[in-house]
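Changelog note: in this version the structure field was regenerated for every chain. One regenerated record is shown below for reference.
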Amino acid sequence: MESAALIVVLVVALALFFDFTNGFHDTANAMATPIATGALKPKVAVLLAAGLNLVGAFLSTEVSKTISHGIIREDQITSSTFLPLIFAGLIGAITWNMLTWLLGLPSSSSHALFGGLIGATLVGAGVMAVDFGVVLSKVILPAVISPLTAGLIAFAVTKLAYALTRRYDGKPDGRDGFRWGQIFTSSLVALAHGTNDAQKTMGVITLTLILAGWQDPAQDDPHIWVILACAFTIALGTYMGGWRIIRTLGKGLTDVKPAQGFSAETSTAATILASSALGFALSTTQVASGSVIGSGLGRRGSKVRWRTVGRIAIGWLLTLPAAGAVGALAALIVHGLGTWGIFIDALLALAIIVALFLQSRRNRVTASNAMSEVAESGRAVKVKRNPPPTRRQREIEREEARRRAEEEARVRAERKAQAKADAKRVARELEQQKKDAAARAEGKGRK
């Protein structure tokens, strides 16, 4: 009994640390673009995001139910077997989160968690313990669809925003009014992030309590202390700021302008809130990245850095299998060594975390240097020296050409009519001269 209680405490502690890494790993989703455009100061941005993450964690529990009563068939696994596997799965998720944070890659904390849990479960309980139907419908498909959907929405909103404010195209850093809009939309994204990502840790802890017999399996909702702990932990992690990933999303994918940031955040918030209501545990990172790319494609003259996009996409593809592999390895250690395996896993996890943290200190990225070129965005839209005419300009040119053609035709017709009139007048004069000459000749003949 004491051993089981110790494992539960270790799992809850590790789950909360994962929640902490989730916070600083995903701060960029809400605050990278407003920091990049200068709409919010870096420290103010992460403080605002932390507060709204805290509030958002209390607004919904649908995603938590997906984790605690969905992916893993806990009724087919004994608690003594599965509790160590949850511990191993969390090690896989945390390891991937720390590695991608070090590399500045906005990967999915959600998929790292799912991958770690699935990998550990496959090793310790077999294939039948994983509900792959739920994995496909509520993890894989949202992962494919959500960034594409968010990107399309951001593309359309960006096009609309620039079409409505086209008169500011030639002005430096135009459309400053969107900066104020960014404060609202980025706040909405932070709130949405709290409603989605904090619940994933709540689901893991709830699952742990159910397996340990500390919570009724029929109770879907997490306990209030679980909600409080996860909410405050993710808020604290958010306040720490994942500056490496903020730099990647804020200036690594494309040069973000105020209207782009507004459009991207609007798309991100709408997609996340809709998924939270439906219980889809999607990746807020993938949604935010897709939105930034879509907004970059929607602005005339902007460039999307496809090499960076490719690196991020590779990270997305590797997240589930990589976290799953680490989780499976940790599960093998537990499976082979029992309780001692848990302590070995804990020590290995601590060593990995410390090593990655020390490595990050060699090239520190902080609030002061994450965005070294904040708001240095030049003109709102890149205008060429000899830009091609817009559709409106082409319409005006066609109308002017039509009027010129009509005027030239009218002038030609008038000249032709005048020429005919002149010819008739000359002919009449010649005829009259002939008659006059004949009359004079006839008069001389009579004389």
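Spot check on this record: Confidence is low (pLDDT under 50) at residues 374-378. The first helix runs from residue 2 to 37.
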